[in-house]
Amino acid sequence: MINTILIFPIVACLLMLIIKNKCFTTLMVNLYAIIHFVITLLLAFGIGSRSSIPYFAVDNTNLIFLMVLSFVFLMVAVYNNGYVKTFDFPDVKIRNYSFMILVFVLSMTGTILSTDLGISWVLVEATTLSSAYLIYFNRTKHSIEAAWKYVFICSIGIALAFVGIILLNISSGNVNTLNFAQLYKYAATFNPNWLKAAFVFMMFGFGAKMGLAPIHFWLPDAHSEAPSPISALLSATLLNSAFMVIVRAFKIMVLADCVDYARFMMFVMGFISLFVTAVFVYHTRNYKRMLAYSSIENMGILIIGTALGGVAYFAVILHLIGHSLAKASFFLTSGNILELFGTKRIKSISGLINADGKTGWLWVISFLAICAFPTSVLFISEFIMIKTMLLQGHYWLCGLFTLLLTIILYGIGKVVIKTAFGNLSEDKKEQICTNKSRITFGMYFPQFVMLLIVFILGIYIPPFLNNIINCTVAGF
After folding, report:
1. CA-CA distance, 476 to 60, in Å (whole number)?
2. Phi/psi at 57 (nearest 5 deg)?
3. In the chain, what are the domain boundaries?
4. Residue 52: strand, helix, or coil
Protein backbone atom coordinates (compact mmCIF):
# COMPACT_ATOMS: atom_id res chain seq x y z
CA MET A 1 0.00 0.00 0.00
CA ILE A 2 2.84 2.38 0.80
CA ASN A 3 4.35 1.40 -2.55
CA THR A 4 1.17 2.52 -4.28
CA ILE A 5 0.95 6.02 -2.78
CA LEU A 6 4.66 6.59 -3.49
CA ILE A 7 4.78 5.12 -7.01
CA PHE A 8 1.37 6.15 -8.42
CA PRO A 9 2.19 9.90 -8.75
CA ILE A 10 5.41 9.04 -10.61
CA VAL A 11 3.47 6.92 -13.10
CA ALA A 12 0.76 9.59 -13.34
CA CYS A 13 3.34 12.28 -14.10
CA LEU A 14 4.84 10.16 -16.89
CA LEU A 15 1.38 9.62 -18.38
CA MET A 16 0.68 13.36 -18.17
CA LEU A 17 3.81 14.03 -20.24
CA ILE A 18 2.45 11.69 -22.93
CA ILE A 19 -1.28 12.53 -22.76
CA LYS A 20 -1.30 16.30 -22.98
CA ASN A 21 -4.92 16.91 -22.05
CA LYS A 22 -6.24 19.32 -19.39
CA CYS A 23 -9.07 17.03 -18.29
CA PHE A 24 -6.71 14.07 -18.00
CA THR A 25 -4.26 15.99 -15.79
CA THR A 26 -7.07 17.08 -13.47
CA LEU A 27 -8.32 13.48 -13.40
CA MET A 28 -4.87 12.28 -12.27
CA VAL A 29 -4.88 14.73 -9.34
CA ASN A 30 -8.34 13.53 -8.28
CA LEU A 31 -7.43 9.88 -8.70
CA TYR A 32 -4.28 10.27 -6.61
CA ALA A 33 -6.24 12.10 -3.90
CA ILE A 34 -8.78 9.25 -3.73
CA ILE A 35 -6.13 6.51 -3.77
CA HIS A 36 -4.08 8.36 -1.13
CA PHE A 37 -7.09 8.75 1.14
CA VAL A 38 -8.38 5.18 0.76
CA ILE A 39 -4.96 3.63 1.41
CA THR A 40 -4.34 5.89 4.40
CA LEU A 41 -7.73 4.94 5.82
CA LEU A 42 -6.98 1.22 5.36
CA LEU A 43 -3.60 1.63 7.07
CA ALA A 44 -5.29 3.50 9.93
CA PHE A 45 -7.66 0.54 10.42
CA GLY A 46 -4.71 -1.87 10.44
CA ILE A 47 -5.40 -3.31 6.99
CA GLY A 48 -2.30 -3.95 4.87
CA SER A 49 1.41 -3.78 5.52
CA ARG A 50 2.77 -0.65 7.20
CA SER A 51 6.21 -1.07 5.63
CA SER A 52 7.28 -2.09 2.16
CA ILE A 53 9.75 0.06 0.23
CA PRO A 54 13.01 0.42 2.21
CA TYR A 55 13.29 3.68 4.19
CA PHE A 56 9.50 4.24 4.30
CA ALA A 57 6.99 2.97 6.85
CA VAL A 58 3.90 3.95 8.84
CA ASP A 59 4.39 3.97 12.60
CA ASN A 60 2.50 5.29 15.60
CA THR A 61 4.12 8.71 15.34
CA ASN A 62 3.55 9.55 11.69
CA LEU A 63 0.14 7.95 11.08
CA ILE A 64 -1.87 10.97 12.22
CA PHE A 65 0.32 13.27 10.07
CA LEU A 66 -0.37 11.06 7.07
CA MET A 67 -4.12 11.06 7.80
CA VAL A 68 -4.23 14.86 7.98
CA LEU A 69 -2.24 15.20 4.74
CA SER A 70 -4.45 12.68 2.96
CA PHE A 71 -7.77 14.21 4.01
CA VAL A 72 -6.74 17.82 3.34
CA PHE A 73 -5.38 16.80 -0.08
CA LEU A 74 -8.70 15.13 -0.91
CA MET A 75 -10.64 18.27 0.08
CA VAL A 76 -8.25 20.50 -1.88
CA ALA A 77 -8.62 18.24 -4.93
CA VAL A 78 -12.41 18.61 -4.77
CA TYR A 79 -12.07 22.40 -4.57
CA ASN A 80 -9.44 22.41 -7.30
CA ASN A 81 -11.88 20.92 -9.83
CA GLY A 82 -13.92 24.12 -9.81
CA TYR A 83 -10.89 26.35 -9.32
CA VAL A 84 -9.09 25.27 -12.51
CA LYS A 85 -12.20 26.13 -14.51
CA THR A 86 -11.57 29.78 -13.63
CA PHE A 87 -8.10 29.62 -15.22
CA ASP A 88 -7.53 31.50 -18.43
CA PHE A 89 -4.26 29.73 -19.22
CA PRO A 90 -3.02 27.41 -21.99
CA ASP A 91 -3.50 23.67 -21.44
CA VAL A 92 0.24 23.14 -21.06
CA LYS A 93 0.37 25.52 -18.08
CA ILE A 94 -2.56 23.76 -16.39
CA ARG A 95 -0.80 20.44 -17.04
CA ASN A 96 2.36 21.75 -15.36
CA TYR A 97 0.23 22.96 -12.44
CA SER A 98 -1.31 19.49 -11.93
CA PHE A 99 2.07 17.83 -12.50
CA MET A 100 3.72 19.84 -9.73
CA ILE A 101 0.82 19.24 -7.32
CA LEU A 102 1.44 15.49 -7.65
CA VAL A 103 5.18 15.92 -7.08
CA PHE A 104 4.54 18.25 -4.13
CA VAL A 105 2.16 15.83 -2.38
CA LEU A 106 4.53 12.92 -3.12
CA SER A 107 7.40 14.85 -1.48
CA MET A 108 5.34 15.59 1.63
CA THR A 109 4.14 11.99 1.84
CA GLY A 110 7.71 10.73 1.59
CA THR A 111 8.88 13.17 4.26
CA ILE A 112 6.21 11.94 6.68
CA LEU A 113 6.78 8.23 5.95
CA SER A 114 10.58 8.34 5.94
CA THR A 115 12.35 6.20 8.54
CA ASP A 116 15.72 7.85 7.88
CA LEU A 117 16.78 11.39 8.76
CA GLY A 118 18.87 11.70 5.59
CA ILE A 119 15.93 10.73 3.36
CA SER A 120 13.71 13.15 5.25
CA TRP A 121 16.22 15.93 4.57
CA VAL A 122 16.25 15.16 0.83
CA LEU A 123 12.46 15.09 0.61
CA VAL A 124 12.04 18.33 2.56
CA GLU A 125 14.21 19.95 -0.11
CA ALA A 126 12.06 18.28 -2.78
CA THR A 127 8.98 19.98 -1.32
CA THR A 128 10.73 23.33 -1.82
CA LEU A 129 11.58 22.68 -5.46
CA SER A 130 8.14 21.35 -6.36
CA SER A 131 6.10 24.02 -4.57
CA ALA A 132 8.25 26.92 -5.81
CA TYR A 133 6.70 26.59 -9.28
CA LEU A 134 3.22 26.55 -7.76
CA ILE A 135 3.93 29.75 -5.82
CA TYR A 136 5.21 31.36 -9.04
CA PHE A 137 2.24 30.01 -11.04
CA ASN A 138 0.43 33.35 -11.63
CA ARG A 139 3.69 34.92 -12.86
CA THR A 140 3.11 38.34 -11.37
CA LYS A 141 5.83 40.59 -10.00
CA HIS A 142 4.89 39.68 -6.43
CA SER A 143 4.63 35.93 -7.10
CA ILE A 144 8.10 35.69 -8.63
CA GLU A 145 9.51 37.68 -5.70
CA ALA A 146 7.73 35.34 -3.27
CA ALA A 147 9.03 32.24 -5.08
CA TRP A 148 12.64 33.47 -5.02
CA LYS A 149 12.41 34.42 -1.35
CA TYR A 150 10.90 30.99 -0.61
CA VAL A 151 13.64 29.10 -2.44
CA PHE A 152 16.41 31.27 -0.99
CA ILE A 153 15.36 31.12 2.67
CA CYS A 154 14.34 27.44 2.63
CA SER A 155 17.59 26.52 0.86
CA ILE A 156 19.54 28.26 3.61
CA GLY A 157 17.39 26.43 6.12
CA ILE A 158 18.00 23.05 4.53
CA ALA A 159 21.75 23.80 4.48
CA LEU A 160 21.63 24.53 8.22
CA ALA A 161 19.72 21.29 8.75
CA PHE A 162 22.43 19.44 6.83
CA VAL A 163 25.07 20.86 9.17
CA GLY A 164 22.90 19.66 12.06
CA ILE A 165 22.81 16.15 10.59
CA ILE A 166 26.61 16.15 10.29
CA LEU A 167 26.96 17.26 13.92
CA LEU A 168 24.45 14.59 14.95
CA ASN A 169 26.57 11.99 13.18
CA ILE A 170 29.66 13.25 15.02
CA SER A 171 27.84 13.05 18.35
CA SER A 172 26.77 9.46 17.66
CA GLY A 173 30.37 8.20 17.60
CA ASN A 174 30.48 4.69 16.15
CA VAL A 175 26.73 4.58 15.45
CA ASN A 176 26.99 5.24 11.70
CA THR A 177 23.33 5.45 10.77
CA LEU A 178 20.58 8.02 10.35
CA ASN A 179 17.77 5.51 10.82
CA PHE A 180 15.40 6.94 13.43
CA ALA A 181 14.93 3.63 15.25
CA GLN A 182 18.68 3.19 15.60
CA LEU A 183 19.19 6.81 16.66
CA TYR A 184 16.56 6.36 19.38
CA LYS A 185 18.15 3.10 20.51
CA TYR A 186 21.63 4.55 21.00
CA ALA A 187 20.70 8.16 21.85
CA ALA A 188 21.78 7.77 25.49
CA THR A 189 25.36 7.14 24.32
CA PHE A 190 25.62 10.28 22.16
CA ASN A 191 28.01 13.11 23.05
CA PRO A 192 25.69 15.75 24.62
CA ASN A 193 27.71 18.78 23.52
CA TRP A 194 27.75 17.80 19.84
CA LEU A 195 24.11 16.74 20.09
CA LYS A 196 23.02 20.10 21.47
CA ALA A 197 24.86 21.88 18.66
CA ALA A 198 23.19 19.53 16.16
CA PHE A 199 19.74 20.30 17.55
CA VAL A 200 20.29 24.06 17.20
CA PHE A 201 21.08 23.69 13.49
CA MET A 202 18.25 21.24 12.86
CA MET A 203 15.77 23.39 14.75
CA PHE A 204 16.65 26.45 12.69
CA GLY A 205 16.91 24.45 9.46
CA PHE A 206 13.66 22.49 9.63
CA GLY A 207 12.09 25.35 11.61
CA ALA A 208 12.55 27.58 8.55
CA LYS A 209 10.44 25.13 6.57
CA MET A 210 7.89 24.94 9.38
CA GLY A 211 7.56 28.72 9.36
CA LEU A 212 8.86 29.38 12.87
CA ALA A 213 10.17 32.84 13.71
CA PRO A 214 12.77 34.23 13.35
CA ILE A 215 13.26 32.31 10.06
CA HIS A 216 9.69 32.73 8.85
CA PHE A 217 10.16 35.49 6.26
CA TRP A 218 9.25 33.40 3.23
CA LEU A 219 5.89 32.25 4.58
CA PRO A 220 3.69 35.40 4.37
CA ASP A 221 4.81 36.09 0.79
CA ALA A 222 4.56 32.50 -0.46
CA HIS A 223 1.17 31.74 1.10
CA SER A 224 -0.35 35.00 -0.08
CA GLU A 225 0.85 34.74 -3.69
CA ALA A 226 0.20 31.05 -4.38
CA PRO A 227 -3.14 29.92 -5.87
CA SER A 228 -5.62 29.28 -3.05
CA PRO A 229 -5.55 25.44 -3.26
CA ILE A 230 -1.75 25.59 -3.02
CA SER A 231 -1.92 28.04 -0.10
CA ALA A 232 -4.14 25.51 1.67
CA LEU A 233 -1.63 22.71 1.07
CA LEU A 234 1.31 24.87 2.13
CA SER A 235 -0.29 25.89 5.41
CA ALA A 236 -2.22 22.74 6.31
CA THR A 237 0.22 20.01 5.20
CA LEU A 238 3.70 21.29 4.31
CA LEU A 239 4.31 22.92 7.69
CA ASN A 240 3.16 19.70 9.39
CA SER A 241 5.71 17.69 7.38
CA ALA A 242 8.56 19.85 8.66
CA PHE A 243 7.12 19.63 12.17
CA MET A 244 7.20 15.83 11.87
CA VAL A 245 10.99 15.92 11.37
CA ILE A 246 11.42 18.27 14.35
CA VAL A 247 9.38 15.88 16.50
CA ARG A 248 11.75 13.07 15.51
CA ALA A 249 14.80 15.20 16.39
CA PHE A 250 13.23 16.24 19.70
CA LYS A 251 12.72 12.60 20.68
CA ILE A 252 16.45 12.00 20.23
CA MET A 253 17.09 14.87 22.66
CA VAL A 254 14.64 13.39 25.16
CA LEU A 255 16.28 9.95 25.02
CA ALA A 256 19.75 11.51 25.28
CA ASP A 257 18.73 13.37 28.47
CA CYS A 258 19.15 16.79 26.80
CA VAL A 259 15.46 17.60 26.96
CA ASP A 260 15.74 20.77 29.09
CA TYR A 261 18.07 22.36 26.53
CA ALA A 262 15.72 21.44 23.67
CA ARG A 263 12.64 22.70 25.50
CA PHE A 264 14.22 26.08 26.24
CA MET A 265 15.04 26.60 22.58
CA MET A 266 11.55 25.51 21.50
CA PHE A 267 9.90 27.84 24.02
CA VAL A 268 11.96 30.75 22.68
CA MET A 269 11.12 30.09 19.03
CA GLY A 270 7.48 29.39 19.84
CA PHE A 271 6.91 32.63 21.71
CA ILE A 272 8.84 34.66 19.13
CA SER A 273 6.47 33.22 16.52
CA LEU A 274 3.45 34.36 18.55
CA PHE A 275 5.00 37.80 19.07
CA VAL A 276 5.79 38.27 15.37
CA THR A 277 2.21 37.37 14.46
CA ALA A 278 0.78 39.70 17.12
CA VAL A 279 2.81 42.60 15.69
CA PHE A 280 2.42 42.05 11.95
CA VAL A 281 -1.20 40.90 11.84
CA TYR A 282 -2.19 44.51 12.54
CA HIS A 283 -0.13 45.92 9.67
CA THR A 284 -1.04 43.59 6.83
CA ARG A 285 -3.23 44.90 4.02
CA ASN A 286 -3.68 41.54 2.31
CA TYR A 287 -6.18 39.04 3.77
CA LYS A 288 -4.23 36.00 2.48
CA ARG A 289 -1.10 37.42 4.07
CA MET A 290 -3.05 37.76 7.32
CA LEU A 291 -3.90 34.06 7.15
CA ALA A 292 -0.22 33.28 6.57
CA TYR A 293 0.74 35.07 9.77
CA SER A 294 -1.93 33.03 11.54
CA SER A 295 -0.07 29.91 10.36
CA ILE A 296 3.12 31.21 11.96
CA GLU A 297 1.17 31.68 15.19
CA ASN A 298 -0.20 28.14 15.15
CA MET A 299 3.18 26.59 14.37
CA GLY A 300 4.46 28.46 17.42
CA ILE A 301 1.65 26.95 19.49
CA LEU A 302 2.58 23.44 18.30
CA ILE A 303 6.22 23.96 19.27
CA ILE A 304 5.27 25.39 22.68
CA GLY A 305 2.99 22.41 23.32
CA THR A 306 5.74 19.99 22.35
CA ALA A 307 8.15 21.74 24.72
CA LEU A 308 5.64 21.47 27.57
CA GLY A 309 5.42 17.67 27.23
CA GLY A 310 3.13 15.40 29.21
CA VAL A 311 -0.57 15.80 28.50
CA ALA A 312 0.27 18.76 26.23
CA TYR A 313 1.38 16.21 23.62
CA PHE A 314 -2.27 15.20 23.29
CA ALA A 315 -3.16 18.89 22.86
CA VAL A 316 -0.48 19.24 20.18
CA ILE A 317 -2.05 16.51 18.05
CA LEU A 318 -5.55 17.95 18.51
CA HIS A 319 -4.22 21.38 17.57
CA LEU A 320 -2.44 20.01 14.51
CA ILE A 321 -5.67 18.40 13.27
CA GLY A 322 -7.82 21.44 14.04
CA HIS A 323 -5.43 23.98 12.56
CA SER A 324 -4.90 21.98 9.37
CA LEU A 325 -8.62 21.67 8.67
CA ALA A 326 -9.60 25.19 9.75
CA LYS A 327 -6.73 26.89 7.93
CA ALA A 328 -7.31 24.88 4.74
CA SER A 329 -10.94 26.02 4.91
CA PHE A 330 -9.84 29.62 5.48
CA PHE A 331 -7.48 29.64 2.49
CA LEU A 332 -9.95 27.91 0.16
CA THR A 333 -12.62 30.44 1.13
CA SER A 334 -10.14 33.23 0.45
CA GLY A 335 -9.98 31.85 -3.10
CA ASN A 336 -13.72 32.43 -3.42
CA ILE A 337 -13.30 35.99 -2.14
CA LEU A 338 -10.57 36.65 -4.68
CA GLU A 339 -12.81 35.27 -7.42
CA LEU A 340 -15.68 37.53 -6.35
CA PHE A 341 -13.83 40.80 -5.76
CA GLY A 342 -10.69 40.30 -7.88
CA THR A 343 -8.41 41.70 -5.17
CA LYS A 344 -6.55 40.63 -2.03
CA ARG A 345 -6.62 44.08 -0.46
CA ILE A 346 -8.55 44.14 2.81
CA LYS A 347 -9.79 47.70 2.36
CA SER A 348 -11.39 46.76 -0.99
CA ILE A 349 -13.49 43.95 0.54
CA SER A 350 -16.75 44.72 2.32
CA GLY A 351 -20.23 43.23 2.54
CA LEU A 352 -19.05 39.70 1.76
CA ILE A 353 -22.16 38.08 3.23
CA ASN A 354 -24.34 40.28 1.02
CA ALA A 355 -22.18 39.49 -2.02
CA ASP A 356 -22.24 35.71 -1.50
CA GLY A 357 -23.84 34.37 1.66
CA LYS A 358 -22.18 30.94 1.51
CA THR A 359 -18.69 32.36 1.09
CA GLY A 360 -19.34 35.02 3.74
CA TRP A 361 -20.49 32.57 6.40
CA LEU A 362 -17.70 30.11 5.58
CA TRP A 363 -15.27 33.01 6.09
CA VAL A 364 -16.79 33.87 9.49
CA ILE A 365 -17.02 30.25 10.68
CA SER A 366 -13.44 29.57 9.57
CA PHE A 367 -12.41 32.48 11.79
CA LEU A 368 -14.41 31.07 14.73
CA ALA A 369 -12.71 27.71 14.22
CA ILE A 370 -9.17 29.08 14.03
CA CYS A 371 -9.63 31.45 17.01
CA ALA A 372 -10.61 28.50 19.25
CA PHE A 373 -14.25 29.48 19.69
CA PRO A 374 -16.12 26.67 21.50
CA THR A 375 -16.78 24.01 20.32
CA SER A 376 -13.78 24.19 18.00
CA VAL A 377 -11.25 21.46 18.79
CA LEU A 378 -8.65 24.26 19.00
CA PHE A 379 -10.42 25.48 22.15
CA ILE A 380 -9.72 22.10 23.76
CA SER A 381 -6.08 22.02 22.66
CA GLU A 382 -5.29 25.55 23.81
CA PHE A 383 -7.15 25.00 27.09
CA ILE A 384 -5.05 21.89 27.80
CA MET A 385 -1.83 23.78 27.03
CA ILE A 386 -2.77 26.66 29.35
CA LYS A 387 -3.71 24.18 32.09
CA THR A 388 -0.37 22.37 31.61
CA MET A 389 1.56 25.65 31.95
CA LEU A 390 -0.23 26.41 35.22
CA LEU A 391 0.35 22.91 36.61
CA GLN A 392 4.06 23.12 35.72
CA GLY A 393 4.37 26.53 37.37
CA HIS A 394 4.98 28.50 34.15
CA TYR A 395 2.78 31.38 35.29
CA TRP A 396 4.59 34.11 33.36
CA LEU A 397 4.62 32.03 30.20
CA CYS A 398 0.92 31.29 30.63
CA GLY A 399 0.11 34.99 30.97
CA LEU A 400 2.22 35.88 27.93
CA PHE A 401 0.71 33.02 25.92
CA THR A 402 -2.85 34.14 26.70
CA LEU A 403 -2.07 37.82 26.04
CA LEU A 404 -0.48 37.18 22.63
CA LEU A 405 -3.32 34.89 21.53
CA THR A 406 -5.86 37.54 22.53
CA ILE A 407 -4.04 40.25 20.57
CA ILE A 408 -3.88 38.02 17.49
CA LEU A 409 -7.54 37.04 17.82
CA TYR A 410 -8.56 40.71 17.91
CA GLY A 411 -6.40 41.57 14.89
CA ILE A 412 -7.82 38.80 12.70
CA GLY A 413 -11.35 39.26 14.04
CA LYS A 414 -11.35 42.96 13.15
CA VAL A 415 -10.56 42.15 9.52
CA VAL A 416 -13.07 39.29 9.28
CA ILE A 417 -15.91 41.38 10.72
CA LYS A 418 -15.09 44.34 8.47
CA THR A 419 -14.95 42.24 5.31
CA ALA A 420 -17.97 40.06 6.11
CA PHE A 421 -20.47 42.50 7.60
CA GLY A 422 -19.61 45.83 6.02
CA ASN A 423 -21.67 47.52 3.34
CA LEU A 424 -21.36 46.20 -0.19
CA SER A 425 -20.24 48.88 -2.62
CA GLU A 426 -22.82 49.62 -5.33
CA ASP A 427 -20.21 49.86 -8.08
CA LYS A 428 -19.05 46.28 -7.40
CA LYS A 429 -22.44 44.56 -7.45
CA GLU A 430 -22.43 43.94 -11.21
CA GLN A 431 -18.86 42.57 -11.16
CA ILE A 432 -19.67 40.30 -8.19
CA CYS A 433 -22.86 39.06 -9.81
CA THR A 434 -20.87 38.01 -12.89
CA ASN A 435 -18.03 36.42 -10.92
CA LYS A 436 -20.35 34.58 -8.53
CA SER A 437 -21.52 32.31 -11.35
CA ARG A 438 -17.98 30.96 -11.66
CA ILE A 439 -17.97 29.61 -8.10
CA THR A 440 -19.23 26.04 -8.22
CA PHE A 441 -20.73 23.88 -5.46
CA GLY A 442 -17.38 22.08 -5.15
CA MET A 443 -15.79 25.37 -4.07
CA TYR A 444 -18.03 25.49 -0.98
CA PHE A 445 -18.40 21.83 -0.03
CA PRO A 446 -14.81 21.05 1.18
CA GLN A 447 -14.83 23.97 3.61
CA PHE A 448 -18.18 22.89 5.02
CA VAL A 449 -16.92 19.33 5.63
CA MET A 450 -13.66 20.42 7.26
CA LEU A 451 -15.32 22.98 9.54
CA LEU A 452 -17.96 20.47 10.56
CA ILE A 453 -15.21 18.05 11.64
CA VAL A 454 -13.37 20.80 13.56
CA PHE A 455 -16.45 21.65 15.65
CA ILE A 456 -17.55 18.03 16.14
CA LEU A 457 -14.10 17.05 17.46
CA GLY A 458 -14.46 19.77 20.09
CA ILE A 459 -17.42 17.82 21.50
CA TYR A 460 -16.72 14.21 20.64
CA ILE A 461 -13.56 12.38 19.56
CA PRO A 462 -14.40 8.92 18.13
CA PRO A 463 -12.67 6.06 20.00
CA PHE A 464 -10.91 5.04 16.78
CA LEU A 465 -9.33 8.48 16.38
CA ASN A 466 -8.66 8.82 20.09
CA ASN A 467 -6.70 5.57 20.01
CA ILE A 468 -4.59 6.79 17.09
CA ILE A 469 -3.88 10.08 18.88
CA ASN A 470 -2.85 8.24 22.06
CA CYS A 471 -0.51 6.01 20.03
CA THR A 472 1.01 9.14 18.45
CA VAL A 473 1.51 10.71 21.89
CA ALA A 474 3.25 7.52 23.06
CA GLY A 475 5.62 7.86 20.10
CA PHE A 476 6.68 11.44 21.01
Report:
1. 9
2. -160, 155
3. 2-475
4. coil
